[in-house]
Amino acid sequence: MKKYLIALMMVLLPVSVQAATGSVHLDAIEVDLENNASLQRGMGTFVDRCMGCHSADYQRFERAANDLDIPNELVEEYLLMGGQKIGEQMKIAMDKGDAANWFGNPPPDLSLEARLRGPEWIYTYLRSFYKDESRPWGVNNVVFKDVGMPNVLEDLQGLQVNHCTAQESAHGASGEIDPLTNTRMSSCLTVEKAGSQSVEEFDRTVYDLTNFLVYMGEPYRLESERLGTKVLIFLFIFFLFAFALKKEYWKDVH
Ligand code: HEC
Q: How many domains are there within the chain?
């Protein structure tokens, strides 16, 4: 019995491995792979803002377009760059060696990033850049100390400052948003120079982006969830027939 219980627990453990994040508090996020509008916006942001440096080698444009119900013409018009074909993987032109020279570390492929770090980590990371003049890009990050990536979403988010010491700033970017001042209360990070989006809008942008990264890590999950429902309906109908047949067979025995 104990053996079965242990086996059951192993099955129920979540698939994505949470990377060690020290003592930094990560903000909660509930991903929703059924929300096509969010995934579509996330894909737009990803191609627009992230694929300058990061590839997604395990994902093809066409597959994503089909899964997320984006018409192929729109992908061709807005998402493909310089001679890319819709059937191709989401590769980029940047050379890994050059990138390592420019940034210290090369920007990793992000196809499986959400499985590696978990959605909470990504959601918090992308919202936790803050001003730090001592760093090459003028920013540091609460979740990823001394990160080699610039804050590529700064024009949307604005420039944040960090009021806390290293120990205290283990808060991520959480805290209630005050609608009057458009700042996050009881948070170490506040926007010093506003960007084009409000704090709430920016949370949504990063939510959509994180949602898309989770989808990319498990593109078959959408399909299997939809298939799962069909299989259950089939099993239910099959059960009715099997039960009727059983009754028919045993009718003469009793
Ligand atoms: C200008 C180039 C550049 C752009 C554009 C860029 N990144 Fe990065 N990114 C980097 C570099 C360089 C690193 C590696 C940082 C390091 O290891 O210090 C990185 C690291 C990361 C990591 C952490 C990887 C890990 O697990 O170690 C994530 C997540 C990430 N980027 C997400 C994004 C997303 C999402 C976007 C689009 C909004 C984006 N990046 C746009 C350069 C870029």
A: 1
Tell me, using a 6 A CB cutoff, whether residue 108 lines ligand 1.
yes
Spacing, Cα 2 to ligand 1 middle (Å): 44
- For residue 83, the CA-to-ligand 1 centroid distance in Å is 24
Which helix or strand (DSSP H or E) is residue 60 part of?
A: strand 56-60
pTM attached to this predicted model: 0.82
Residue 77 three-state SS: helix
Which is nearest to 90 in space by CA: 240, 216, 233?
A: 216
Beta carbon of 113 within 6 Å of any ligand 1 atom: yes
Q: In sequence order, what are the residues at sequence separation of 6 or more whose Cβ sits closer than 8 angstroms to the Cβ of residue 221?
A: 33, 215
Is the beta carbon of 67 within 6 A of some atom in ligand 1?
no
Per-residue pLDDT of 199-249, as tens digits, reads 999 999 999 999 999 999 988 887 888 899 999 999 999 999 999 999 999
Strand partners, 56: 90
Domain that holds residue 80: 26-242
Asked if residue 42 belongs to a domain, the reply is yes
Whether residue 208 has its Cβ less than 6 Å from ligand 1:
no
